Queue: 3 jobs
Job 1
Amino acid sequence: MKSNSINHFNLGEIKLDPRVPLFVLLVFFALVLMLNPAFGKSYYHLGLIFSIVTFSDFFLNYIFNKKIHFSLSPMASSIGIVLLVYSVSWKYFILISLMVSLSKFFIKEKGLHIYNPNNFGIVFGLIFFSDHVTTTIGRWNFNQEMFITMIVFGFLISLLANRALVSIAYFLSFTLFSLMRSFFLGTTISYELLPLNSPTFYLFMFYHITDPGTGPVNKKGMILFAVLIALVESVLRSMEVIYSPFFSYFIVLSFQPFLSSIFERRYRNQLRPA
């Protein structure tokens, strides 16, 4: 679910683009989940969302940048929509898929897109079509082996992209704020830590907020970025806001351009463009 530019992991003379194992792994998860009718998706949904996100990004990239180029980033974003969004109507998947690409080209600051395209599409659907769009939380039917696979490979891919610090800082912050909510709100610790049992939590932590295209590249910025996402999420959870992780990520990204001295976004000069 990465957008735009990424780091490359050097193994001797070999350069491994983290988006390659990311895309392969996300497709694998999607195919496994579609075997379960409760997930509510079919190969039709996969093909529809993949085609809209990928080809709309291709055409917009040609119009704005005069480039004929298919990128792995929108491909991964499309699978992210398959894994995280649920609706009984295909038309909402079309609208959300279009917003994934449009946000990348139209909502910018100093030439850089502000929002993670995948998260923007999800938040767009949850806000404007709340009666028809939800997330797939509770629809995942992973066995223990698949659950462990998601965590292990998620961490490895975040390492390849030099974004593991974001995941670690988020996990520790989420745990700390959950314990604080339990203490101050009088809820049980098991209740506050319940999201740790959900595959979507680790999808969000390893494959979502680690997007190098919209996050800071400096270590201090990465840590603060992750802590702020967890903090805003904790506040939203205490207010019983549904889908708080996605909204918290959206809110923090909205303020990131105003805190450029902390959140360094120099990647356009360092990393390969999508």
Job 2
Amino acid sequence: MQRDSDVRALVLRSAGTNCDGETVRAFSLAGAQTSLVHLNELARDPARLHDQEILVLPGGFSYGDYIAAGRVFGLELRQRLLEPLQRFVEEGGFVVGICNGFQILVELGLFEPEAGQRHIALTDNAANRFECRWITLRSERCATPYLVPGELLPAPVAHGEGRFVVQDKDVLRELFARGQVALTYVDPAHLAPAGADAPSVPYPLNPNGSIANIAGLCDPTGRVLGLMPHPERNLAPWHHPRWTRLPAREAGEGLGFYRRMVEAARARSPLPTSKP
């Protein structure tokens, strides 16, 4: 049963979304009052967004990924809800996109410093096939307030277009300099520093060949976060495929990820503005 909470999370779905159920459960277990809303419903009443603290774009294959992963959903959001979404972030709201949700946020351009300019993308995996496996994430020093630098998070990936690419090396260095690189794929047995010139973690530990092993990105405010892996699939101790060989755990590591996000949303505050 979902308990009462002063933090409200809205999980947004559309045709092809298929990870909405476990995402709703993750936020409910983390202590948020969680609702599942169709894109058309929110577009008819955008003011509903501003009654929330967290907006979630869950995983799946929105609109069948027929043109490119997340592109149609991203276009829908741009045309119908971009201004309310931007105002939501300015007023202190958090946005998180998981897997297909990350692809949607990239298509929206929310990680780019200049509106209308695209310097990053998520494209086909280097292996040219769908990857479904467990990996290890590491939280990096970034603008997102609820990520703990250096923390390791095992989680599964399930995507065909998750390889993070950039226009050139300068773009990559700027992402690190602005504190936008939030999560990286790591080898837990041989941890190495992250950075624009960091050595590549080998396949399958980096399951898609992302440059600089980047698995998740935030915007410069830290309020918008996107990641390819699925923490919502690691909520219980037995979700991990090797759980019987791990030390005793009260919960899966993914639950801590959502709990800290909910706590950060509870302390939300508007962004500074120069408007009168």
Job 3
Amino acid sequence: MQPALKEEGEFKYIDVGQGPVLIFLHGLFGALSNFEGPIAHFGQRYRVVMPMLPLYTLPMLNTNVPALADFLHRFIRHKGFTEVNLLGNSLGGHVALIYCTKHASTVRTLTLTGSSGLYENAFGGSFPRREDKEYLRKKIALTFHDPRFATDELVEECYVTVNDKAKLIRILSLAKSAIRHNMAKDLPHLKMPVCLIWGKQDTITPPEVAEEFKALIPHSQLYWIDQCGHAAMMEQPVEFNRIADGWLSQHLA
């Protein structure tokens, strides 16, 4: 059962558990369901907070990754958090990275999985056949090592989203912003410990991207998950939780 969404002003979020604050950041097509396993697991020992990023409600001229990082800053300030642990997947990892370059003093640890920020194979510049559900199913299946994870529910969710013109324009704008906003020059300046958890079969942010993150971020450790694509917390939640939990316990001891 998913935790209830809370609403306060511009913010919609979940907030479960007690302990060190652990903020989950979802990707471009992200939803609460993407983190169902980690929320249940980490909510037992952490205060798990997950804001819903305003992917479709930012002003069109300000629909970019830095604007999402500014939103995250407003959210953290709104909640009065002075020390947070960030965990981001895909675009959510990119948002976390930008936040860390601007507000490092509030970040105790950073965990990235399938993060953008260096290079990614996105959907491309458009959805030429967005009315074709089987085409969308094949595109969504690229997110996973096992195509069975491209469920009817995910396909329907994506279909509804990309056939909403206002949402589609923003998705494409954010995807292009992520590609343009390369962070290679910023990564060597990160001071917090960073955990990299990567699917060995990730085709969207391939293994060489993880290796480059590892080479550029000073205090980073890289962990691989086999039989796993771009969304490790969905496809291999038990192994993902084991790695992230062990690493966090070590650094928050």
